[in-house]
Amino acid sequence: MIRHLVLFKLNEGVSRDEARVQAGAKAFEELGGVIPELDFWQCGWNITERDIAYDFAIVSDVADGDALQRYIAHPDHQAAAAQWREFATWVIADLES
Amino acid sequence: MIRHLVLFKLNEGVSRDEARVQAGAKAFEELGGVIPELDFWQCGWNITERDIAYDFAIVSDVADGDALQRYIAHPDHQAAAAQWREFATWVIADLES
């Protein structure tokens, strides 16, 4: 099993309330039920005010490296990521679990 | 429940094999069994080569905001974080789950 972690930082001046940002969050929220490779899916907004805090995060599990690649290449993932690329950056870590 | 996520990036020129880095990883690995506020604890090295990949990550669950503060203030957490401050930076996200 691989745990795929993604932390998103909204670009300077972008707020969570913007329609495009809300739509992007919704797109990720729905991804869990759409992509078969996802054995676990959790995403949501950060709730802690700290200067090292990012804004949004995904915690997801896939079976292995091949499944991770299929998830990343999946059209619905690509579409959601394309939305977020307009207003955020992100970093990842993949843990063997 | 709050899911506390931390992604660590080793400083420029620091490698995972360094003794201080291995000791820091061990300190975090042991934290899960030491701090009572931790309802779930997972940590480990990133396994994916991507330019947006960080190096090490923690996934942990605590009951609520007070428990999160007690975890952060716990001497063993402070000691482990102090080790990592020597050779890495990190970002966090806290999700309500």
From TrEMBL, chains A, B:
Gene3D superfamilies: 3.30.70.100. Pfam families: Dabb. Residues 2-95 form the Stress-response A/B barrel domain. PROSITE patterns: S_R_A_B_BARREL. Transmembrane segments: none annotated. InterPro entries: Dabb, Dimeric_a/b-barrel. It comes from the Bacteria. This is Dabb family protein. It comes from Yinghuangia soli. The lineage of its organism: Bacteria, Bacillati, Actinomycetota, Actinomycetes, Kitasatosporales.
